[in-house]
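Milestone 3.1: sequence recovery, worked example.
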């Protein structure tokens, strides 16, 4: 089934041991049109609990329950708080 990427907004990201947060926004590569990162958080969007998670780190989407798996613990995800685009393998800063 074909879905809109907007369907990801509001989906809950679930780690191995519980909820990480809900998808608030998406970063899309303007050359390849691929989703590169998701912005997620638990509280109000204006709070400072936002996480930038590489889309490639996410697992399967369960459309019925509107959840997205991430194969790591919530503690490990939270320890990274912010992923920099240059941390992604194969990305050269300034290129």
């Amino acid at each position: 089934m074909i879905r809109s990427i907007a369907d990801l907004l509001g989906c809950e990201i679930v780690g191995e041991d519980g909820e990480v947060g809900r998808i608030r926004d998406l970063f899309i590569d303007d050359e390849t049109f691929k989703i590169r990162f998701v912005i997620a958080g638990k509280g109000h969007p204006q709070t400072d609990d936002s996480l930038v998670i590489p889309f490639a780190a996410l697992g399967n989407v369960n459309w019925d329950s509107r959840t997205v798996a991430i194969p790591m613990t919530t503690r490990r995800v939270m320890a990274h708080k912010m992923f920099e685009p240059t941390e992604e393998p194969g990305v050269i800063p300034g290129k």
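The mean pLDDT is 82. The first strand starts at residue 12 and ends at 15.
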